[in-house]
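Structure request: RGS domain-containing protein, Aphanomyces astaci.
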Amino acid sequence: MQRNLYEIEPGPLGVYVVLVFVSCCLPVAIGVFVRRRKFPTIRYANPRQTAFCSSMAAVLSLGGSCMLLNQHAVACGTFNAFLFVFVVVTLFGLALNQLTLVLTFNLTQHLVNHHADTSDQNKAKSVVRIMRLRRLLQPRAIVVKWMVGTLLWLLPPVAILDHASVAHMQSLSVADCIEIPLNVAMNFVLLALVGVFIASFGVLAHYLSKVIDNFGLRRRYQTMGRLLAVLFVLEAIAIEYRETYWVATYKLRYVILPIAGFVVVGCQVVWPLVHSRHELPVHFTVAEGHGSKLAVLEDYLATPDGYLMFSAFARLEFSFENVVAWKAAFEFRLHGGGDAYAIYKAYMAVGAPMETNIPDALRQHYHRIFAKDRKGKVVLGLASAIDHDSAVFDLFRDAILKLMALDTLPRFQHHALGQHYDTFAQSQAQERLLSNVLKSLDQLGNPIAMDRSLTQHMPLDK
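Returned structure:
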């Protein structure tokens, strides 16, 4: 085992170098994925669990590639143990993550049914099901299931190991362990377990929601399962024809495993990253506390295209000042403050250049803050304090939103400029419903708490 990589033929050496290079890029993609975890396509894919599974796949790819590159110095037993452990850990984690998504969508549907049902008997039954699902989806329960399940899946190969076989495998390098009977047996055990996991991916993908799939979860798992199934077949062929020149020289049955890691990271991390390029982070802070209709309208106005379309329509309706006033108050809140007095003078003061039609009581409220209470007084720090109070215009923003929702929005939805609003509203309703479910998993007090208005836009899987 004291030979070096110069004894590897140029062809296989080039393949191993490429595998190592691509493997080194995987942690970068996972890091960006974690940083963008608030974007819808990523947020609803269970980002922490997905990042963990993808990290295990990246370790499998990088470790396996490096060992192939240095195959004359790595013991056969160590190599096989490494591959087996990380393949099982990765695939079991992915299966559990997919099961978690299935249960989350199931919980979402039960919550919708619970709030839509009028029968007390059915409501009582649904509460029991909801509580059971909530217990299964608690983070601690998921960790316990992963630990116990992984240990159980790691046990089968122990039955075919003995001290003499282990010592024999450790005495040879990866380059020389092709013909060891135990090595072949371990590969068949590994292959059988992988086959079970791939079958489970297909079954679980069938139960992923078809309705709430604007985040691409179902399609990603289906694609990953199909690609892994192809690699599974290739691995079986490579084991069967392990003595042929190309399979033995290029170590093809080992090369397939790092490629499987690429498939996992590609489908679970890179794919949602690409789709999140044109999304906004899911904060919902701008519409927190609003009714569903106002929340959707504000989220729509917060997008560049939404603001452009709605403001263009408002010009036609001679209500452009409302949209501009909302934007000023919205950006004041978003940036944590600004020139508060300038906003008051522009939109709220009597005779303002773009005076808005707000209730008199609200106008007097801001008059007292910015004009009346300042007459004949100089209060040190008052103006600065107001400029840094990000919530000072919340009441004004709410009033403008209600005005636009009642007066402008209904006509906007039937105009050519607003043709995409209903699609956006349904997408937002789905996102808010899932956010509500995710939050409810951390709330032990009320297992069925949710905004009932969300269920009005929520279609169900049949």
